[in-house]
UniProtKB/TrEMBL annotation:
GO molecular function, one term: L-methionine-(R)-S-oxide reductase activity
Organism of provenance: Duganella callida
UniProt xrefs under InterPro entries: FRMsr_CS (IPR000614), GAF (IPR003018), GAF-like_dom_sf (IPR029016), Phosphatase_reg/MetRdx (IPR051330)
Identification of the protein by name: GAF domain-containing protein
UniProt record similarity statement: Belongs to the free Met sulfoxide reductase family.
Pfam families on file: GAF (PF01590)
A GO term from the CC aspect: cytosol
Domain GAF: 62-164
Length: 168
């Protein structure tokens, strides 16, 4: 691992510290989503919570599927590319593969779409609707190489599940 979380409340960078962060985030997110089903409002608060809690991010946000394209949704960070075709970039590949993708080095990912030249690593998690179909993705970018691991992929997926429950 090439970075530390020494500027956060979660202490040194260990899988347990990462896990503790997601254990803290879940009830906070549940509070934000409680009683609300509006997808724009909920995904806006979701990205704000994650972006302002997780160290080492430069972008966190949603793309939602419209036809065969992902279209930019609520996010935190610099302005980003608006439309991504299914199968393109990390986001579009996540839709086609149907599972989370961790990219330790975006320069080594063929077809990566560079919205921010500072991004070095990326994690994209699919978002599913009530019938199990993918309706979008949640994308996290970091200026740090190798920022995301399986603990992050599982942790973010556990948060996405809470958002998915509001779509039922
Ligand atoms: N890097 C992404 C595009 C979205 S931005 O990073 C916000 C990709 O390759 O799909």
């Amino acid at each position: 691992m090439t970075f530390t979380l020494n500027d956060t409340a979660y202490g040194t960078d260990t899988p347990a510290a990462r896990q503790a962060m997601y254990d803290d985030l879940r009830p906070q997110l549940q509070g934000l989503l409680h009683g609300e089903t509006d997808l724009i409002a909920n995904s806006a608060n979701f990205s704000a919570l994650v972006f302002n809690t997780m160290p080492g991010l430069n972008w966190a946000g949603f793309y939602f599927l419209k036809g065969d394209e992902l279209v930019l949704g609520p996010f935190q960070g610099k302005p980003a590319c608006i439309r991504i075709k299914k199968g393109r970039g990390v986001c579009g590949s996540t839709v086609v593969e149907g599972k989370a993708i961790v990219v330790p080095d975006v320069h080594a990912f063929p077809g990566h779409i560079a919205c921010d030249v500072n991004s070095r690593s990326e994690l994209v998690v699919p978002v599913r609707g009530p019938n199990g179909d993918i309706v979008g993705v949640f994308d996290l970018d970091s200026p740090l190489p190798n920022r995301f691991d399986q603990t992050d992929a599982d942790g973010i997926a556990s948060l996405v599940k809470l958002l998915e429950a509001t779509l039922a």
